Amino acid sequence: MLTLAIDIGGTKLAAALVDERRQIKERHTLPTPASQTPAALREALKTLILPFTGRMQRVAVASTGIIRHGVLSALNPDNLGGLAQFPLIDTLTQLTGLPCLAVNDAQAAAWAEYRALTDNVQDMAFITVSTGVGGGIISQGRLLTGTQGLAGHMGHTLADPNGPRCGCGRKGCVEAVASGRAIAANATDDLKGMDAKAIYALSVNGHPQAIRLIEQSAQAIARLIADLKASYDCQRVMLGGSVGLAPGYLSRVERYLAQEPATFHTPIIAAHYQHDAGLLGAALLSEDDFL
Predict the structure, then answer these.
(1) The predicted structure's pLDDT at residue 275
(2) What is the mean pLDDT of residues 193-209?
(3) pLDDT tens sequence across 224-259
(4) Which residues are ATP-binding (predicted)?
(5) Nearest to 60 by CA among 25, 30, 17, 94
(6) Which of 29, 42, 259, 279 has the most CB atoms around it within 10 Å of its CB?
(7) Does pLDDT of 9 surpass 90?
């Protein structure tokens, strides 16, 4: 059975056919609509899935934001261009005529990464550091989503009470310090106006402010991991996202985590599925009849 897996991100929409062996057979991508109005997102999804018409038996979507009763909303509206309430499942069911599952993208990625493990791990966390900071929690072999879909939104835990205001309304969230959007927003002087990718490249070349911004990000993620270890004794943390998978970033996080007391240490591993974790996780959850 082929599943059409869709990944809705802050900058990119992706769709792929996934078979029972977790193999991606074909994929298409589009930029996330700049306006991100409900009409614009619906049209973009229609265009995205058109090449797959008649070739899939079910649809599974992983999206940034919170999924409640099939409706997409954003904890940090900046990551979805202000899109407030979008009937995600109803829209995709109307467009495809097929049953659809929808889940947060980091929760989906966490499930894919958990299913890829070969050893006896029952408690695992997945953290994505990308446009925002998201995550998924596996506890006793089960994915936690919460009654309102909020479980795993660890980017909105506290990093610095005196830090910048986050788009969610809180002050000093991990996302407001560590995310790609935050790295760019917190840049000043000659780095002002650059995106996180350019700033990261400059940090590799020794630019002092760029190094400071990346180090702040890595330190915030390390503290988050220590908090997760204290919260539910996770055995492993998988790190993903465009920032999280950037060369040298994981080792920075490990260095800061090593400065915490040993009780709060846990192994950190790069995401097995890299940037496909959300797509594959959504397909696997659909296959497992998760919802």
Answers:
(1) 85
(2) 97
(3) 999 999 999 999 999 999 999 999 999 999 999 999
(4) 5-12, 132-139
(5) 17
(6) 279
(7) no
Q: How far apart are CA 129 and CA 89, in angstroms?
A: 26
Token output for 43: 């049209």
Which residues define the annotated binding site for ATP?
A: 5-12, 132-139
Annotated binding site for Zn(2+): 156, 166, 168, 173
213 has a pLDDT exceeding 50: yes
According to the 3-state scheme, what is the secondary structure of the chain?
A: CCEEEEEECCCEEEEEEECCCCCEEEEEEEECCCCCCHHHHHHHHHHHHHHHCCCCCEEEEEECCEEECCEEECCCHHHHCCCCCEEHHHHHHHHHCCCEEEEEHHHHHHHHHHHHCCCCCCCEEEEEECCCEEEEEEECCEEECCCCCCCCCHHHCECCCCCCECCCCCECEHHHHHCHHHHHHCCCHHHCCCCHHHHHHHHHCCCHHHHHHHHHHHHHHHHHHHHHHHHHCCCEEEEECCCCCCCCHHHHHHHHHHCCCHHHCCCEEECCCHHHHHHHHHHHHHHCCCC
| Beta-ladder partners of 260 | none
pLDDT at 287: 84
Q: Token digits for 39?
A: 């009409």
Q: Is the pTM of this model over 0.85?
A: yes
**Which amino acid would we find at residue 244?**
G
